[in-house]
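Async update (no meeting this week)

Hi team, since we skipped the sync, here's where things stand on the single-chain job. The sequence we agreed to prioritize is pasted below, unchanged from the tracker. I ran it this morning and attached the output directly underneath so nobody has to dig for it. Comments welcome in thread, and please keep replies under the output.
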Amino acid sequence: MTSHGAISIADDLDGKRIAITGGTGFLGTALIERLLRGVPGCELVLLIRAGQRRTVEQRAKREIFKNDAFDRLRAETDDFDAMIARRVTPIAGDVGTDGLGLDADGRAELATCDIVIHSAATVSFDSPLDSAVEVNLLGPSRIAATLHDLHDEGSMAELPHLVAVSTCYVAGNRKGSAPEVPVDQSPFWFGVDWRDEVAAARRIRADAQAESRKPDMLKRFRSEARKELGAAGTPLLASKTEQNRTRWVTDQLVDAGRSRAASLGWPDAYAYTKAFGERALFDQRGDLPVSVVRPAIIESSLAEPSPGWIRGFRMAEPVIISYARGLLKEFPGVPEGVVDVIPVDLVCAAICATAAAGPARNDDGSLAEPRIVQSASGSANPLRYQTLVDNVSGWFTEHPIYDNDGQPIVVPEWKFPGRGRVQAQLERAKSILEKSESVLQALPLRGKQAEWAATLEEKKEEAQRALTYVELYGAYTECEAIYGVDNLLGLAAACDDESRENFCLDPRVIDWDRYVTEIHLPSVVTHARVKTTPGASDRESRSSRLRRQVLHEDRQVVAFDLENTLIASNVVASYSWLATRRLPTDDRLRFVLRTLAEAPSLLSLDRKDRSDFLRHFYRRYEGADAAQLHADTVEMASHLLLTKSFPEAIRRVREHRKLGHRTLLITGALGVAIEPLKPLFDDVICAEMSIGADGRFTGELTDVPPTGETRAQALLDYCETHGFDPAESVAYADSTSDLPLLEAAGFPVAVNPEARLAALARKRGWLVEHFEKSAGHSDPLLPIGPSWRGRTPTRIAR
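Output:
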């Protein structure tokens, strides 16, 4: 504080070095901008977790200072980059690690700081229990311990002031007054030891990891992987199996967090671990000066750095957009209840004022109990849930979102049902969609028909998303706690006029109707990138954009599958044509009946393992005259391959060649069967069969057939041999068995995809193409070669 007793934030923080954790987050970014612009004399030390591919300096530049929060400061500064270099020092660290993961240089930088603002947190309401415990519960006390270590070793002359950012919801699921007091002074505190909670969370993870590795569980995860990916090959199935296992462990820890929080009266693991984090900090702080700032629900800015500034979607935005799109028709809540929302710039101002005021002290100058400041609006300027709903409904009625056809979406009438009823409705809808999706995926659907399955997948995800919103946020809309702000208003009153004008922290200044309709909702709609104008979109369609990327001149190599990608045929059809070409009429009929009878078993083998199927099926060529087959395939090209080809697919091959791309056919078809197609491509990788000394095929392949993961490796080897970058490659394929190939390419294209692949392609944002045959040709179940009018040769049909 200044000598006359009033808080002058810019003056009191002038010349101070301030360490900040959580700078890459929503609140942290806003806080950094506010301090750099509002306190020109301060310097910042940013503790940032190093990325796998980026240094902390790169992360700071990319994830913090390129954000539009700094547009105003950038415009007001002659050399923004030089100013940042002069005033900001990033250091590598992790609050989830003992000692904060600091190296010697990081410890030295932290030792120079006068103030530490700890805003890092796992803010997701459905965080796994152990990660929430490590960051939210232990993070503040880890910082305290590190600061004590630096002070004890003499690196730090005086202990800095630690301002820990918590949350109002440490008060739990209470009704009525929730004052600015330590959590253990609440009548709802049960005296549970935070150390026991840490030990239990770590034990739960170890138990879940052990359970997930039991044989029956591993079989389940593999079964789920095969159900999703089909015959995608062993490496991809193994990878997906492990993903399923780790996801199951995470789900167990999420459930454990929810259950433990609910058992002790908190809405979720976030609030529960934050409450115990406060308790642990107060136990471990020793003589470290500590203050705590507890925000309520932080939303877009009221004014700073610009009205409506927001980073990412917070709590309310997904619900609001889902309502505006007609996806969410009901949401639990109490109409007359308070939704305690606070703009992010008011929270930043409260943190800055708390830091400037310094730690609370007794009359004799000794440290008092830590000051707790709740940055909330409910007790001073309440926003009623009904008021919020009326504003949102009225605004979207006047400014509707438009669907893909350019028609306005009429928002439903918002009701206020109980959380249990909404959850039950969404669970039923999700169950029906899952069963329908399972039926469709079992059918042999392809191309546009398979889009039905992809659409159902999307609807199921929408239902799951709505259910998640209700589970995560329903407790907050039903919360009837009123958070006291006496200390906050006392800080505001203690600020001088300049600070009150430049660092507004008083929630009573907010006009909620104006904030919601003129500031918050326009910002939310802009960030959601939804369609806000009628009629057909003038923006380039997603398919057009992806197609333009695929056909860009920078692409280098393009790999094509054959069956159902370039032609509506398969190895069985080719074999049938060649085998019947020289069979008498009676034998032809028996061949067709026998082949159709074994079709189910062939299909089952194909779905289990494409390589095994090809090896098994190609045995039928044993003893076939190689020269005869070569002659017959020339005729088969016009009778079968060309009539079943997709003209648009053939044109696409030529487009790529015209652009200078290297074209590569990768297929499990036999080389002899596709001989006429080879000139269409620069190179061909296919299955090849050995020929005996008698000029007849042996029925044995010369190498592993290019299927599944073998195709992916073939593409990567081809790129390495010819000096191509796999990131600049394109792959066209139709089946989940081709997933390794599609994932190996920089630009995957799903062509006439089967149901599973259609759903995966939509989920992963891949280009989907629907190529069709030319009309006018018959399409028998099994192609028959035209009768051969010559002397009887050796037959290949057995």
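Quick observations from my side:
The CA atoms of residues 213 and 245 lie 8 Å apart.
The first helix runs from residue 9 to 12.
Reply here if anything looks off.
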